[in-house]
Amino acid sequence: MKTRTTHLDIVIILVLSNFFLPTSMSQKKIRRKDYSGYQVHRVNVNSSDHQTLLQTLFQLLEADVWKEPTQFLSHFDVMIPGKSLTMFKDALRDLKLSHSLRIRDVQVLIDDEHVTHGKRHPRRTRRFRFNQYNDYSTIIRFMKYFRRANSDIVSVVQVGITYEGRKIFALKISEKSDRVKPVIWQDALIHAREWVTGSTMLWVANRMVQGYRKGETDSVQLIRNFDWLLVPVWNVDGYLYTWKEDRLWRKSRSESGSMGCRGVDLNRNFLTPNRGGGTSSNYICSGVYQGTTAFSEPETETVSQYLKTLNLAAFISVHSFSQLWMFPFGYTKTHSPDYSDLDFISDHAVRAIYDLHGVTYQQGPVVDKIYKVSGGSVDWAHEKLCVKYAFAVELRDRGEYGFLLPKEDLIPTAEEYFAALKTVGRHLMTTNSTRSSLCNDAIG
């Protein structure tokens, strides 16, 4: 009897024969990558076997997985090149897996992000627009103007350096005081394509200073009780690359070996136990490549050294997308001894978000809400810097636009985050200790 060969069989044959197409998005020299015809699909998963097979299929198709299944969500969000769509759909049909279209043409959304960018007057810094995405040079000009206009409480400080030799800057907001105040650290764009995070960081800095000037109680108390460090662009090299060559580039831009691949996932490059476990990789062309060693990258090494000099009350790393307010751990399912306090403050943060615009965020440990991952900055800050209140926040949305959030959502997203941030700040002003219980017996 003749056996029908399915598209799934073809995938298996290719896997067994070690035939993997090169990950061209990593290996080729890309110039203004065109995403015309690329689509984002949500693929529902029925079993762990399907999940493993789909991961292989996506590698074969040169697909970019935007979101993986979790213990709460049984689907992938994945971007498929136009040339691979037919094989993708046929393979899913053989697997009897359902899928739905999320983004019909990725390039259309990318083009929309840039519609107004060329119509501005880039030298007129007072016209900085928080309701659209801004390139790196515009961000730096705004930071300098913001510092000059608010020189009594705002400064720009260097916190690190990049692989390509660029300085990593933070906005420091601090009211002069005779005492050494605890620091609340916030960073954005450690992943280059998560543009909404940088926009949010700048809006929050501006809003906090405006509130301080107007005598608003929350902003005055936040600035009076804490020093604030806000990093709008951590992965500077990668962010520049997203504007010039590949909008959806994620990693840094370091040279990663003889295969021609570039970049390290900086949020897999911190020192945590179980290095390489979970959603991180030793494969240099992977989008979640962890690097040769912890802190192998200048972006993580130099910033981590700077962080060690601070009296940190909180560490907040801002990402997109999924609408999550998370806390340690990512590398293990074991709960932090500070779980109750972290869950309590996270619950109040997501309630503040919902009360503002009716948008629902979920809270919980990283490993529960997304996936197991080692080398994350939040786990490192909690364990090694002894920061009790360490959070990883995933901003809007839940997959309708993903990394390509429309400009209309930028300010509402920032407003929600600021509402949650004020809740965190108010809690920290009343707590007895911001030191992680993991470090209570440590010296220093």
TrEMBL record:
Q: Family per UniProt?
A: Belongs to the peptidase M14 family.
- Keyword Signal annotated: yes
According to UniProt, the name of this protein is Peptidase M14 domain-containing protein
List, from the UniProt record, the residues annotated as the active site of this protein: E394
Tell me the domain of life. Answer: Eukaryota
Instruction: Write out the entry's keywords from A to Z.
Output: Carboxypeptidase, Disulfide bond, Hydrolase, Metal-binding, Metalloprotease, Protease, Signal, Zinc
Q: Which organism is it from?
A: Clavelina lepadiformis
Tell me which cofactor or cofactors this protein depends on: Zn(2+)
Where would I find the Peptidase M14 domain in this sequence?
132-428
List residues traversing the bilayer: none
InterPro entries registered for this protein in UniProt = CARBOXYPEPT_ZN_2, M14A-like_propep, M14A_act_pep, Peptidase_M14
Entry-linked PROSITE patterns? CARBOXYPEPT_ZN_2, PEPTIDASE_M14
Among Pfam families, the record links this protein to:
Peptidase_M14, Propep_M14
> PANTHER family, from UniProt?
CARBOXYPEPTIDASE B2 (PTHR11705:SF17), PROTEASE FAMILY M14 CARBOXYPEPTIDASE A,B (PTHR11705)
